Amino acid sequence: MTSRFSRILGIETSCDETAAAVVEDGQAILSNVISSQADFHAQYGGVFPEMASRMHIEAIHPVITQALSDANTTLDDIQAIAVTRGPGLPGSLIVGVNAAKGLALGGSLPLLGISHLEGHLYSLFLVERAAPFPVLCLIVSGGHTELVLMSDHLQYKRLGGTIDDAAGEAFDKVGRMLGLPYPGGPHVEKAAIGGDAAAYPFPRAWLKGTHNFSFSGLKTAVLRELKRQTPSIRPGEEPPPPGLPIADLAASFQSAIVEVLAAKTVNAAREHKAKTIFIAGGVSANKALRDATETHAGDLPVRFPPLNLCADNAAMIAAAAHFRFMAGQRDPLDFDVKPNWKLE
Ligand code: KG4
Ligand code: ZN
Q: d(Cα 283, Cα 227) in Å, to the nearest integer?
């Protein structure tokens, strides 16, 4: 798009990671600092929004200072401040946005509000500058499961998404039922190793004729199977008793969710004659999803972020901001957060 120079400080606080990063030209990561609250929220089995916001307040300035220092730079050498404006938890978003506004005002720097979903997509452009458009994108995270067609940089058409649980949310809820720590996704993937993916024929909701997804039936089917095996069980409230086939349950659940995600993504890519498939967001770290999508896609190239950029980070926000900055976007200092912001 452009090779003009930018050095952008990105800030991300949409959920339970306080993150700041300095990125040059949308591609060179000079620093990428992430302070995760996941260990704290684990005791509640999910993010506790009020505490998330308070913990962002404590972490935000040290994290930004660390990002500038790791990049060996100061605000004097930064061209713009970029911050996640939404979607996300309102109380969490506000902390990052207010910090960004303060820095922009104090340093007389331009401010850009960036979509968290766009950020996840640009985690791929941090490594794939020349991906051919159109790109069919699947964003799969704890809060989102979205199929988006990207015709060019910053140009999106939403094709569909989940009508109930997000894919990561389903992983997290099933993880909790199986007595695995929060966030469940990586633990379910680990528990599934060595399990028989064909042990339980859990339902696949194809929602044919649409690009939508539904995972709540799958989650309920896992719950029903647990109760069938141990009627006294209280999944999610207390750990399952020993002896349950956790590996088979995890593998069967994972294969059901991954099969639907992979097949529907590749179908959408073919229907829209996409030249590349991008899969981004926390769940894109899942190896079974990576393998299934590549198998379905055949000759169609499928790209994933490097593992360290799948989950929430601020480098992806600064990367997206580079393209918006070069296109002339500057946001007023009084903009508000957009907790339900859609990518369109
Ligand atoms: O993108 P992200 O860090 O935060 C949101 O924007 O939501 O995604 C977090 C989600 C969680 O639901 C987590 O369980 C899931 O990504 N996740 C995974 C894996 N690693 C993270 N799900 C399945 N397999 C994984 N390996
Ligand atoms: Zn995310």
A: 27
pLDDT tens per residue, range 308-319: 999 999 999 999
Are residues 173 and 238 both part of a single domain? yes
- CA of residue 189 to ligand 1 center, whole Å: 11
Residue 215 vs residues 100, 136, 228, 252: alpha-carbon distances, Å? 36, 21, 20, 14
34 and 94 part of one domain: yes
Answer yes or no: is the C-beta of 175 below 6 A from any ligand 1 atom.
Answer: no
Q: In whole angstroms, what is the distance from residue 279 CA to residue 138 CA? A: 5
**For residue 14, how far is its CA from the centre of ligand 1 (angstroms)?**
14
Would you say residue 202 has pLDDT above 80? yes
Q: How many domains does the chain have?
A: 2
How far does residue 232's CA lie from ligand 2's centre (Å)?
36
Q: Are residues 100 and 160 in the same domain?
A: no
Decide: residue 48, CB within 10 A, 0-12 exposed, 13-18 middle, 19+ buried: middle
Helices (H) and strands (E) in the chain, counts: 10, 10
pLDDT band at 81 (very low <50, low <70, confident <90, very high): very high
User: Parallel, antiparallel, or unpaired for β 28-36 and 17-24?
Assistant: antiparallel
The lowest-confidence range among 37-46, 158-167, 231-240 is 231-240
Q: Which atom of ligand 1 is nearest to the CA of 175?
A: 14
For residue 254, the enclosing domain spans 133-304
pLDDT at 221 over 60: yes
User: Ligand 1: which of 12, 17, 47, 141 to mutate, most ligand atoms within 8 Å of CB?
Assistant: 141
- Distance from the alpha carbon of residue 173 to the mean position of ligand 2, in angstroms: 17
Q: Cα–Cα distance between 59 and 81 in angstroms, integer?
A: 18
Does 291 lie in the same domain as 165?
Answer: yes
